Amino acid sequence: MNGAESLLRTAAGAGVEVCFANPGTTEMPLVAAFDAVPEVRAVLGIFEGVCTGAADGYGRLTGRPALTLLHLGPGFANGIANLHNARRARTPVVNLIGDQASWHLDHDAPLTSDIASLARPVSRWVHQSQSARDLASDLAEAIGRSTAPPGGVSSLILPADFQAEGAAGPVVVEAPASRTAVPDARIADLASRLREARQAMILLGGAALDERSQNAAGRIMAASSAHVLCETFPACWERGSGLPGVSRLPYFPEQAREVLAPCDLVILADAREPVAFFGYAGQASRLAPDQSCHVLAGGHEEVSAALEALADALDAPSPPAISHALPDPASGALDPLAIGVTLARCLPEGAIVVDEAATSGLPFYACSLGSPRHTLLALTGGAIGQGLPCAVGAAIARPDRKVVAFQADGSALYTAQALWTCARESLDVVALLCSNRSYRILQIELARAGIAEPGRQARSLTSLEEPAIDWVSLARGYGVPGERVETAEELAKALPRALAEPGPQLLELVL
C-alpha cells in the first residue's frame, strides 16, 4: 500500500464519502488510489472553484467534510474564493493539494509556489506532509481539525513522491469533540437583561438556524421585548411552513442600522457581531448600538440548548402555531417579485435552495414564509461564483432532495463549468438563472456613491450586454437542457415541469 491509498483508506474509515477533484501531474498516485478505495466517490470539476464550492455545499448539509483534490499552488488559488465562503460558513472541508516531489522543490520548476502561504488565509489548519508514512496520520489530523466545533477548512500539502512511496496503512480518526454547554450564569444574566430591555434583538447564525433553535427563539420573542433576525447571509437555514417568520438582517448598512438602532440589547446566538459589508465614508463600521451586543453562544457552544434554556428562564410558553399564506400567483413580465412569488409557490417539500440571485432574489424571502419546508444556503463570504458549485455539493450530499440553484447571471459566469458536473453526475439541480444582463448591485453602488449618470466606460463595466449571453445555448453546451422564460405565466408552467424531471435543468429568466 502506498501513501495515497493509506490516505484514502483513512478518509473512508472516517466516513468521508466524496472527493471533488481537479487533479494534475503531481496527484497521479492519488488518482490511481481511487480505484483501490471505491468507498470515496471521485467527482471531477473542470474548474477548481467548482470543486471547492461543491465541498462547501456538501459540508454545510452533512456536517461532515468532503475532500477536494487540487493541483499545486495555481490550482489551489483557482479555488480560494469559494474556500473563503466556506471559511465564513465554518464548513468542514479538507483540501488535498499536490506538490512537487520533495527532492524537486528546490529547483523552482515553473509550477512551484509557496502553497502554505496561499492556504493560510482560508484555512484553520495547514500542514505539509514530511514522508509517505505520515500521510494517513496527517489526513486524520486534517479531518479532526476540520470537524472540531465550529468546523472549518483544513489544507494538507502532499508531495508527489510521498503519495507514491510505501506506507504502513490507514489510521483511525477520532470522533470530533462535542460543542460545550453554555454556563448557567450566562443564561441567567441574559434572562435578566431581557426582562429589563426596552427593545431587544436576537440575531441567529450558524447552528442557530435549525428548527429547534428557531422554535426556542420564537418562545423567547413571545415572552419578552425581543425580535428575531438571522445573519444577512446564513450558511444553512431551515425555512418554511410552521417555523417562526425570521427575517434577515438587511444588507445595506443604513437599513441594518435602522433596524438595530432602537435595540438596547442584541443577543448573538452563534452569530457574529453585525458590521457593514463595506466601509462608507462618514459611517461607522459597527451596525448595532455601542455596548448592546452580548454573546449567548459562540461557535464552539451548544446554541440550541442555550436558546431553550433562555426561554425556560423567561417562563416562555410553547411556540404558538404559525401559519403563513402563500402569495397569489404573479402575472405579466418577469421581475424579481414575480420570480420570488412563483418559486415560493412551486417549491417541493424538502427542497434545498442555494441562493446567489443577488438583487433578483430579495422578494423570495418574504414570499416563501408559507412554502413547504426547505433548506436555504446563502453566500456567506460574499465571494461570487458560489451558487452553482454549492448546488453540486448539495445535490450529492442529499440525492433524495431537489436542489434549486437560484442564481444571478453575473455571478454564474464565474463558475458556469459546474453545469457540466451536474450533467455528468446526473444531479437533480434546477438552475433558475435570473438574467438582467448586468452587475445590478454595482449599478446600485454607483448610485450610492453619488454617481447618478456614469459615463460610457463606467456603464460598460456593469453591463453584460453587447453581446448578451445566451444561457440556454451555454447550458446545452455543457449537457444541461435549457429553456428561456419571459413571463410569470411561462415560469409557472416551466418551473413545475423542470422540478418534475430527473437530472439537471436550466431556466433562463429574462428580466
Describe this structure in words.
- With 511 residues, the chain is an alpha/beta fold.
- The chain has three domains: 162 residues, Thiamin diphosphate (ThDP)-binding fold, Pyr/PP domains (Rossmann fold, 3-Layer(aba) Sandwich); 130 residues, TPP-binding domain (Rossmann fold, 3-Layer(aba) Sandwich), CATH 3.40.50.1220; 175 residues, 3-Layer(aba) Sandwich (Rossmann fold), CATH 3.40.50.
- Helices cover 38% and strands 18% of the residues.
- Helix 1 runs parallel beside helix 7.
- The chain is globular and about 65 Å long.
Which properties best describe this structure?
511 residues; alpha/beta; Rossmann fold; seven-stranded mixed beta sheet; 18 strands
What percent of the residues sit in helical stretches (DSSP H or I)? 25-40%
Return the CATH architecture of the largest domain: 3-Layer(aba) Sandwich
Count of helical stretches: 21
Strand order of the largest sheet: 9-14-13-15-16-18-17
Strand content: 15-25%
Helix/strand/pairing class, anyone? alpha/beta
Based on CA atoms alone, the radius of gyration comes out at 24 Å
Shape: globular
Question: What's the short version?
Answer:
With 511 residues, the chain is an alpha/beta fold.
